[in-house]
Amino acid sequence: MSGPDGTSEKNIKTRDGILTAVAAALFAAALWWATKNLDGYKLRIINLIAINAILGLSLNLIYGMTGMFSLGHAGFMAIGAYVSALLILTPEQKTMMWILEPIAPWLLGLHTSFVVSLLAAGLIAAFFGWLVALPVLRLGGDYLGIATLGFSEIIRIFITNLTPITNGSLGLKGIPAHTDIWMSYGCLAVVLVCMVRLMKGNFGNVLRAVRDDEIAAQTMGIDTFRTRVLAFSLGCFGGGLGGALMGNLITTIDPKMFMITQTYNLLMIVVVGGLGSITGSIVGAVVVTTMLEWLRFVENPVSIGGIDIPGIPGMRMVIFSLLLIIVIIFRREGIMGMREFSWNWFFHERTPGKTVGGGPR
Questions:
Q1: Of 259, 12, 265, which is closest to residue 159 (Cα–Cα)?
Q2: Could you tell me the pLDDT band of residue 353, with boundaries at 50, 70 and 90?
Q3: Could you read off the pLDDT of 260-299 as tens digits, one per residue?
Q4: pLDDT at residue 245 tops 90
Q5: 41 with 249: CB under 8 angstroms?
Q6: CA 212 from centre of chain
Q7: For domain 38-346, is the CATH number 2.60.40?
């Protein structure tokens, strides 16, 4: 098959592969430069962008690509963060940290490497997602959102009260800071490749069919319930992985970190970037993370023309929410809509077939 300028599809794929490899090498060089020249605060923001991109992709798989409105992602983040932390903390740290009640004996000697803890965090979060999905996904629409929101709050309450396992409201401190730029962006690269291959394959077509018209999908012989359970569990795996990376970046976690506002932030990433767009989740993570940090200045006291204006706590969220409302009003499909990045943008070509995230745009 040939493109409009006579270029074969094989040559286009070769060209795209070379350009992708060059772009990846340049991006890796930029990350290396950042580690050598930027301060700790800027490096943390860069790390947060990668982690939020992973979380945005996982929620977009559930909401944007399968059409399930979920508000429980903060709960799966909490599961992942606590599982990873409990696996990498040393027995000595655990002994000193549990003050209110002694730590559970079976947990004291449990110790693994960071990579193993990441896999365990994702798998255990996916398991709990599967348990939740079996009864909850028989609901739909607003009922599903309310049910997942309730589950997220249940998880947070359990974490607060299961002191022998989670150290209760005191949380976990002194978590080894294993999350660096290479780890966070390496995990993002793996998640991104898996998402692209998943959505380009037949399973991606099945997800879009379920999202667009579940009744029609059932008529075509698709087991829509099983498909939604699998997509929900995969999304929860990403939530657990992102929570584990975040816990090891911040080095301290507690139940208050995983309130509903965490899920709202992820929803902003998905909506701003574009529902159903993999590229949109990446773009949304960059925009939302940087804007939330940049707007911190509005909460600090400033002096303009000799007039002192006191800082107002929480004002950055007010301003950011207003900006989000403006985006929804004037571009409700988000920055990318359902489109995906393509090298053809730079060559003014159109290749046959569908985009990764949705139909051709």
A1: 259
A2: very low
A3: 888 888 888 998 888 888 999 999 999 999 988 887 777 7
A4: yes
A5: no
A6: 23
A7: no
Other C-beta atoms lying within 10 Å of the C-beta of residue 344: 14
φ, ψ dihedrals at 103, nearest 5°? -70, 150
Does residue 312 or residue 358 have the better pLDDT? Answer: 312
Residue 321 confidence (pLDDT): 78
Residue 20 to residues 24, 26, 361: CA-CA distances in angstroms? 6, 10, 22
Domain ranges of the chain: 1-34, 38-346
Query: Over the chain, what HEC string results?
Result: CECCCCCEHHHHHHHHHHHHHHHHHHHHHHHHHHHHHCCHHHHHHHHHHHHHHHHHHHHHHHCCCCCCCCCCHHHHHHHHHHHHHHHHCCHHHHHHHCCCCCCCHHHHCCCCCHHHHHHHHHHHHHHHHHHHHHHHCCCCCHHHHHHHHHHHHHHHHHHHHCHHHHCHHHCEECCCCCCCHHHHHHHHHHHHHHHHHHHHCHHHHHHHHHHHCHHHHHHCCCCHHHHHHHHHHHHHHHHHHHHHHHHHHHCEECHHHHCHHHHHHHHHHHHHHCCCCHHHHHHHHHHHHHHHHHHHHHHCCEEECCEEECCCCCHHHHHHHHHHHHHHHHCCCCCCCCCCCCHHHHCCCCCCCCCCCCCCC
Q: Quick check: 154 pLDDT over 80?
A: yes
Report the pLDDT value the prediction gives residue 359, as an integer from 0 to 100.
Answer: 44
Q: Quick one: tokens of 4?
A: 């409009």
> With 90 as the cut, is the pLDDT of residue 58 above it?
yes
In this predicted structure, what is the pLDDT of residue 86? 93
AA letter at 13: K
Where residue 10 falls among pLDDT bands split at 50, 70, 90?
confident
Q: Which residues of 320-341 are buried (b: 16+ CB within 10 A; e: fewer)?
A: beeebeebeeeeebbbbbbbbe
Say how far apart CA 337 and CA 275 lie, in whole Å. 7
Is residue 85 over pLDDT 80? yes
